[in-house]
Amino acid sequence: MEKASNVPLSRALDAVRGALTQPDAVHFVMLLALLRHEAQRDDLMETSQAEHAWSGVLGRGLWMRDGRDVVSEVMRGLGEWQAHHRELRDLPPDLTDVRGADLEPLVHCVSTAQDLATLFEDCLEHVQRSAKGGDYYTPMDLAGLVSGLMEPRPGESVYDPACGSGGFLLKADEYARTRGGQPGDTALYGQDSNRAALETAAINLTVHGVPSSLHGPASSLTEGGFQDLTFDVVLANPPFNQTAWSQQGREIHPDWRYGVPPAGNGNFAWAQHVVSRMSPKGPGRGALLLPTAAASTTRSAELQIRANLIENDALSCVIELPAGLLPHVRNPVTLWLFNSSKKGGMPWGASDRSGHTLLIDASDTAVKVARGRRILPDDARSRITATFASWRGAQDEEPYEDVPSWCRSLSIEEIAAQDYDVLPSRRVGAPVVEAGHGDDKERVGDLTQELYGLFDMSHRLEAELRDLLEQW
Fold it and tell me: What is the predicted pLDDT for the residue at 203?
């Protein structure tokens, strides 16, 4: 079986259709990938439980029994791995009514896979397409953008308080390795309230050969597993507009230095959690995905927290991203970047941006790759990261300049004058110039161009809305 040609995951899933639900089939493939990884570890000095189990699963005798026996064999082989992930026990799929022979296409897929990490990423793609409700994983193109903006370096610590499948942590480690890091150089920490997501992250990181420390299942907002630690980099894509996040005692929570978040919406609880976990040295930096409404809401508690974040110079940049990048989030989203210091110097850059915030409107940069699937292409990600790096005065970057309809650097005073509204699409347009005596014709020309720009935006939004409506 090992010498056969690679079997695509989609073909294997089609072969078991009717015998297993797709979620159970994908889950079983993930466990098999983990078992094969553990059985083939280079550091094994003697035959392990995982090797025995993997050989047993590949043997024909097991297929004469039922699916429950096959799963039991797999889980016995993962006993040592589970001993290091005690919170993830008792999570195998229930295959009681499945014949062992029905599982053979999935075993064949895993045994012939040339690269387990790639196979696991294919599994996540299938999970993504079949996910319902608010449970989804961050697409890797978006995780790559965030890592490129945060620039995690070898030897630094990275924390994701809503780690999902571990995508942010993997991309952070990958970025650090491109800067000379070795496996284990970057200390990775993650937590999630969802048990299945936490299991997925643990397997994902293991299969990629990336060591990490995970905690949960528990909410980072109310039961943080790393309360005594701060981190060089904090990355998060939490549930949006979370209504049931709070518990008694939130009024005295140490994270709420900028204001008590409303009990019915967790957006600014997450924002303050990210900032509170950033190291004051280095400087610490953070990235957080939030709905666009968070950038301009006038609700009292949220407005006050946003204002305090800006007045205390914690917010470095807000990037407005296109609609459709995140599954089940039809609207555009914003990416907020935080820094414990914006003073000139390494590793920030040569430009002292204290008292200023950069706004980038990238809401018109997505490309459609399939029905209901949009991505942020390489050139858009490169332009965003280059703009932020230029604004910081990073080495080898061009000097920063405001670009109408793309980016604008605003002072705290300018932002305060607009009720602390930091939604980029409202603020990065060409500035209105006061017309002097005799230049009315020029002013009319400027206003005409601005109106044409608004017409273009209207057509773009109409096209996006039609595209999104087609997905329903």
Answer: 94
Bridge partners, residue 214, by sequence: 190
Q: Residue 111 in contact with residue 36, Cβ under 8 Å?
A: yes
* Of 30, 56, 41, nearest in space to 109 by CA: 30
The amino acid occupying position 235 is L
Return the SS3 of 421: coil
- pLDDT recorded at residue 215: 93
Q: Which amino acid is at 358?
A: L
- Residue 365 Cα distances to 156, 331, 357, angstroms: 31, 14, 21
* Sheet-wide strand order for 285-291: 213-215, 187-191, 157-160, 233-236, 285-291, 333-339, 315-321, 356-361, 407-411
8-state DSSP, 444 = H
Q: Which among 406, 408, 430, 410 has a CA at the least distance from the CA of 420?
A: 410
pTM for this one? 0.87
Q: What is the reported pLDDT for 85?
A: 81
| Nearest of 303, 93, 316, 117 to residue 208 by alpha carbon | 117
CA dihedral of 238, 239, 243, 249, whole degrees rounded to 10: -20
> CA angle at residue 444 from 442 to 450, to 5 degrees?
105
> And the tokens for 54?
């993997």
Written as six digits, the tokens of 173 are 């480690």
Q: How far apart are CA 33 and CA 116, in angstroms?
A: 6
Contact between residue 470 and residue 371 where contact means Cβ atoms under 8 Å apart: yes
Classified as helix, coil or strand, 410 is strand
Amino acid at 36: R
Contact yes or no for 175/411 (Cβ under 8 A): no
State the Cα–Cα distance between residues 347 and 329, nearest whole angstrom: 34
Q: Which parts of the chain sit beneath pLDDT 70?
A: 1-5, 44-46, 87-91, 130-136, 247-252, 328, 370-372, 430-472
Residue reference for tokens 């990775």: 188
Instruction: Note the pLDDT of residue 437.
Output: 46
- Tell me what pLDDT residue 48 has: 87
E strands in 135-275: 157-160, 187-191, 213-215, 233-236
Give the amino acid at 14. D
Rg of the chain over all Cα atoms, to the nearest angstrom? 25
Query: DSSP class of residue 278?
Result: B
Question: Residue 304: what pLDDT?
Answer: 97
Question: Residue 297's Cα: distance from chain center in Å?
Answer: 23
Residue type, position 106, single letter: L
Residues 159-182: tens digit of each pLDDT: 999 999 999 999 999 999 999 988
Q: How far is it, in rounded angstroms, from Cα 121 to Cα 86? A: 24
316 with 338: CB under 8 angstroms? yes
Distance between CA atoms of residues 258 and 237, nearest Å: 20
Helix (H) / strand (E) element for 250: namely none
What backbone torsions phi and psi does residue 12 show, to the nearest 5 degrees?
-65, -40
pLDDT at residue 43 in the model: 75
